[in-house]
């Protein structure tokens, strides 16, 4: 029995829509109820929010396209000023019903011009008989535009006296949108994250035709067992599934196992999934590089020019500054004399007795340090004499800008600024080499 039912739309279209949006039937059903029939006035504005990769954009595009509803779809990141945004809506609107591209350019400087041109376009394109949907993806960018843009879009139905609904898609909640002066409240709707069962069902639909559905579902189950705790992004999981499936199939291709030997297949794929864990979200290498790496059996760090985290191009003294900052963050002040002075005198034996009783400084995290201590360590580890010139201080500022160092506390303290090193030990080892 189909989950999607609505008297205003053909049953075949709804059945096809249901197959395209798995695990989002309840949200689509709610949207259909809010939309109503084609000629009916819907809510003036709808606000849909949820985490990234929860299906907001895909569901809206699929719903409007499958049911052939007149709509305009604009990404607010691409059209980042109010003028670009309003002009793009008008351009798409002019080709909405005719299906032809608009040859003449549109000039729209203010929202008053937009309302006037919008009413003219709707009348000329005969769009008054059904609801027109304007979908603004990444709508949080509207907060960076003029103060009147967001309230005007929320009341566009009233301003234009037209059957239009504005749909806002965002990753943040409505409370962070609401202006201080107040505005028309939209109908809000939440898209929850996909559960592990939903991800299993969605990813299993992409199984290759040369393998059975059960075999690919078992592979997806193994993949989610490894990555679900660290990655819930459907796009990232789909990329990982496509990237590592050939390695999972190797024992079957070589004839060493059949599709039901789950244990052998797991033993073969486990080390490669552990390597993939190091580059989740980072996209440090391309798919072809990753396949070559799996074939050669190497480590991810062996590719030349692989990672921005291990091959950072910094000026000569910036590298020493970063090493000095790391030493200052993770070594106590009382050890500076022992580490950085040639004639530091005798060391008490009690210090060595306590060394094994203390927690590792790497587990406790970096500690803040003053500027003069950083420069003192720098002079100690650099072979030649370094003068405290403006060049050195500007490089410290550059390291803060690159977020390799962070400023702790206020900058107007009498004892000078304090810093903290934010990079890892592997990063410093790569710089030190």
TrEMBL record:
Cellular component annotations (GO), alphabetically ordered: nuclear origin of replication recognition complex
Compartment(s): Nucleus
BP terms from Gene Ontology: DNA replication initiation
Keyword list, A-Z: ATP-binding, DNA replication, Nucleotide-binding, Nucleus
Main location: nucleus
Signal peptide bounds: none
Pfam families according to UniProt: AAA_16, ORC5_C, ORC5_lid
The ORC5 lid domain, residue ranges: 216-283
Ranges where the Orc1-like AAA ATPase domain occurs: 21-167
GO MF: ATP binding; DNA replication origin binding
Gene3D superfamilies, A to Z: P-loop containing nucleotide triphosphate hydrolases
Domain (Origin recognition complex subunit 5 C-terminal) ranges: 314-433
Entry similarity comment: Belongs to the ORC5 family.
Complex formation: Component of ORC, a complex composed of at least 6 subunits: ORC1, ORC2, ORC3, ORC4, ORC5 and ORC6. ORC is regulated in a cell-cycle dependent manner. It is sequentially assembled at the exit from anaphase of mitosis and disassembled as cells enter S phase.
Protein task: Component of the origin recognition complex (ORC) that binds origins of replication. DNA-binding is ATP-dependent. The specific DNA sequences that define origins of replication have not been identified yet. ORC is required to assemble the pre-replication complex necessary to initiate DNA replication.
Protein name: Origin recognition complex subunit 5
Organism per entry: Ptilonorhynchus violaceus (Satin bowerbird)
């Amino acid at each position: 029995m189909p989950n999607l039912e609505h008297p205003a739309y053909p049953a075949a279209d709804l059945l096809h829509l249901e197959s395209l949006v798995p695990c989002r039937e309840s949200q689509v059903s709610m949207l259909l109820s809010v939309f109503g029939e084609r000629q009916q006035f819907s809510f003036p504005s709808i606000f849909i929010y949820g985490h990234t990769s929860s299906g907001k954009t895909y569901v809206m595009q699929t719903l409007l396209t499958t049911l052939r509803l007149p709509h305009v779809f604009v990404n607010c990141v691409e059209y980042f000023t109010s003028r670009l945004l309003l002009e793009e809506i008008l351009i798409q609107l002019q080709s909405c019903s005719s299906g032809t591209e608009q040859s003449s350019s549109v000039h729209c400087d203010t929202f008053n011009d937009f309302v006037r041109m919008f009413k003219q376009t709707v009348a000329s394109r005969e769009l008054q008989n059904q609801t027109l949907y304007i979908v603004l993806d990444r709508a949080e960018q509207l907060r960076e535009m003029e103060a009147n843009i967001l309230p005007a879009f929320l009341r566009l139905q009233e301003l234009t006296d037209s059957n239009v609904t504005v749909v806002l898609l965002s990753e943040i909640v409505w409370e962070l949108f609401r202006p201080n002066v107040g505005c028309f409240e939209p109908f809000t709707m939440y898209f929850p994250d996909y559960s592990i069962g939903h991800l299993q069902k969605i990813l299993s639909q992409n199984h290759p035709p040369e393998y059975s559905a059960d075999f690919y579902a078992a592979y997806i189950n193994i993949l989610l067992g490894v990555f679900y705790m660290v990655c819930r992004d459907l796009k990232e999981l789909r990329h990982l599934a496509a990237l590592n499936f050939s390695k999972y199939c190797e024992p079957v291709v070589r004839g060493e196992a059949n599709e039901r030997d789950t244990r052998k297949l797991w033993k073969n794929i486990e080390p490669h999934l552990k390597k993939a864990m190091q580059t989740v979200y980072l996209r440090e290498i391309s798919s072809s590089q990753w396949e070559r790496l799996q074939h050669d059996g190497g480590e991810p760090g062996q590719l030349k020019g692989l990672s921005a985290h291990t091959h950072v191009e910094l000026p000569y003294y910036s590298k020493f500054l970063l090493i000095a900052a790391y030493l200052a963050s993770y070594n106590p002040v009382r050890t500076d004399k022992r580490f950085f002075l040639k004639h530091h005198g005798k060391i008490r034996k009690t210090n060595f007795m306590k060394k094994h009783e203390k927690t590792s400084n790497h587990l406790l995290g970096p500690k803040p340090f003053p500027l003069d201590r950083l420069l003192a360590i720098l002079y100690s580890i650099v072979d030649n004499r370094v003068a405290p010139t403006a060049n050195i201080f500007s490089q410290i500022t550059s390291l803060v800008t690159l977020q390799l160092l962070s400023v702790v506390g206020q900058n107007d303290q009498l004892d000078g600024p304090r810093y903290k090193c934010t990079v890892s030990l592997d990063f410093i080892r790569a710089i030190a080499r």
